[in-house]
From TrEMBL:
PANTHER family: VESICLE PROTEIN SORTING-ASSOCIATED. Coiled coil: none annotated. Belongs to the STXBP/unc-18/SEC1 family. This is Syntaxin-binding protein 3-like. One of its GO terms (biological process) is vesicle-mediated transport. The gene is LOC107687296. It comes from Sinocyclocheilus anshuiensis.
Length: 573
């Protein structure tokens, strides 16, 4: 880049986030770029220099670009790179207005955000509202945009996958992605039609597993983003003064710790620091020593913060949450009466959000509850005017009110994990891990996972090698030479589900699992607020009025043991 272009790079909001997610300013400087500008802000003209534009092909970006060259050019020349396909009308508009200033114009097919080594995002803050609000006017256009973004991911990976989807979930998105992939790969660089590669793309939505976004997960990364106010991956800690640390893949200690259970983290920090240090040469170690010391301080502080939250509040919630999620207690005894499991949480002075999460887990365990019971729960948690926290899950396809036709929402069978060692407070396994493992072993039922387009008949995720057999090392090159399983979850991905992608990859070293989402990582409180605020309440309002008119009771006082008994009786227990 430095051999061809000047030192000015101009970005829009999305491409700023894109570059920030995968490179640092020092990386840009090494390519000869010393100035990075915002496309949408006023900039001083530098007519003797050339400018690189990296932007989305949107009307707003094209207009801003044209304004840079009308009436007088701000730069000597423009080298334009679009994140994906530029519509003909916008391209013609740009060409007509300032063709003589454009030296290069390319579409580079990267309109997704790489969040981690195996995690990506189709970034669109309004996607959730557009897709899940009833009678949404822009749902189809949002799905079109997401499909384009998924295609650019596949193009970046050089994969032409077979496409499957969870039955009754997102057939429209699966069809869009498959058609756009076919058009994209119609001709390759050698003017030959590209065939399917050793990859599968599975498309699901949040209704597949409503439990995982709500449960208190006790692995390090998930717990940190649930319990600590971390914004843009920045953790604030006290080391004599207020300091900030970024929890990203630049932090080697974070990468090694993030999927560990919190019970193991504190003991592993000094061991991992020694391990990382031992892998460095002396000169590199001396250079990196300040960073290692900072990382150690950061993670000791974060681990202590998390344990403090756990001991103060979360520990009291975990048993009930796990029993409701799994449907059995730690000894394997089936939970026969979920209300008895929920009640201690409601009667304890937990904050409202924790009670909402417990109520949702109770409702999910029953595949919906009666209107009478739901109204009592809503009143007890004191969210009569904020019922969307619970009722709006219906818009995701999750049953909240039980109906005579509940047979259509029967829970799917789960893989037997009784032999796996787990902590008693961490027995739940995200459903998507079952899906990943079944896909890798070629066990997904066609009736539940229809094909939009089949991948090569010989494909299975383990390249026909048993998971019990020994494999070669799992370096990035080894993974790329195997097959890929790509999962896209419409409605967001949890940190526990992200962890599952790494775990399944590690267990099946010839298949790399990549997971993506739109629009959010499902941090529990953020997920609840998003459902309450971003999904239209028009359809739930009438239901709320109906419930409020039919039932009323008051449990606002702190209950005595006698009152607890009366509550159980009033709820038919």
């Amino acid at each position: 880049m430095s051999n061809l272009f000047s030192q000015i790079l101009i970005l829009d909001h999305f491409t700023t986030r894109l570059l920030s997610s995968c490179c640092k300013m020092s990386d840009l400087m090494s390519e000869g770029i010393t100035i990075v500008e915002d496309l949408h802000k006023n900039r001083e003209p530098v007519p003797e220099m050339k400018a690189i534009y990296f932007m989305r092909p949107t009307a707003m970006c094209i207009d801003a670009f044209i304004n840079d060259f009308k009436p007088k050019p701000k730069y000597k020349a423009a080298y334009v790179f679009f994140t994906d396909f530029c519509p003909d009308d916008l391209f013609d508009k740009m060409k007509k207005s300032c063709a003589k200033h454009i030296k290069v114009c390319k579409e580079i097919n990267i309109s997704f955000l790489p969040l981690e080594a195996q995690v990506f995002s189709c970034d669109n803050a309004e996607a959730f509202k557009s897709i899940y609000t009833p009678n949404s006017q822009d749902r189809d256009q949002t799905l079109e945009t997401i499909a384009d973004q998924i295609v650019t991911l596949c193009a970046t990976l050089d994969e032409y996958p077979g496409v499957r989807f969870k039955k009754y979930s997102q057939p429209k998105l699966a069809e869009l992605v498959d058609n756009k992939l076919a058009r994209h790969y119609e001709l390759d660089d050698n003017s030959k039609k590209k065939g399917k590669t050793q990859a599968q793309l599975l498309i699901v939505d949040r209704a597949l597993d409503p439990v995982s976004p709500i449960l208190h997960e006790l692995t390090y990364q998930a717990m940190a983003f649930d319990l600590i106010p971390i914004k843009d991956n920045a953790y604030e800690y006290d080391d004599g003064s207020k300091k900030e640390a970024l929890l990203t893949e630049e932090d080697e200690l974070w990468v090694k710790l993030r999927h560990m259970h919190i019970a193991e983290v504190a003991g592993q920090i000094p061991k991992l620091v020694k391990e990382i240090s031992a892998s460095r040469g002396l000169s590199q170690l001396m250079k990196k020593m300040p960073a290692f010391r900072k990382q150690k301080t950061v993670h000791i502080s974060l681990a202590e913060d998390l344990m403090s939250h756990y001991q103060k509040n979360v520990e009291k919630l975990c048993k009930a949450e796990q029993d409701l999620a799994v449907g059995a207690d730690a000894e394997g005894q089936k939970v026969k009466d979920p209300m008895r499991t929920l009640l201690p949480v409601l009667l304890h002075p937990h904050d409202t959000t924790d009670k909402i999460r417990a109520v949702l887990l109770y409702i999910f365990s029953l595949n919906g509850t009666t209107a009478e019971n739901l109204n009592k729960l809503i009143q007890h948690v004191k969210i009569e005017d904020e019922r969307g926290y619970i009722l709006n899950w219906e818009h995701l396809g999750v049953p909240i009110l039980s109906t005579p036709s509940m047979f259509s929402f029967r829970k799917q069978s789960r893989r037997d994990r009784s032999d796996e060692e787990t902590y008693k407070v961490s027995r739940w396994t995200p459903i998507i891990k079952d899906v990943m493992e079944d896909a890798v072993e070629n066990k997904l039922e066609v009736k539940d996972w229809p094909y939009q387009s089949e991948c090569p008949s010989a494909w299975n995720g383990s390249r026909a090698v048993s998971a019990r057999q020994k494999h070669k090392g799992s370096s990035p090159d080894d993974l790329r030479s195997g097959s890929r399983l790509i999962l896209f979850v419409l409605g967001g991905v949890t940190y526990s589900e992200m962890r599952c992608a790494y775990e399944v990859t590690h267990a099946n070293k010839s298949c790399e699992v990549i997971i993506g989402k739109s629009p959010y990582r499902c941090e529990p409180e953020k997920m609840l607020k998003m459902l309450h605020n971003r999904v239209s309440l028009k359809d739930t309002h009438s239901l709320s009025v109906e419930l409020r008119s039919r039932f009323h009771f008051d449990l606002s006082c702190s209950p005595t043991n006698t009152q607890k008994t009366l509550i159980l009786i009033s709820w038919g227990l």
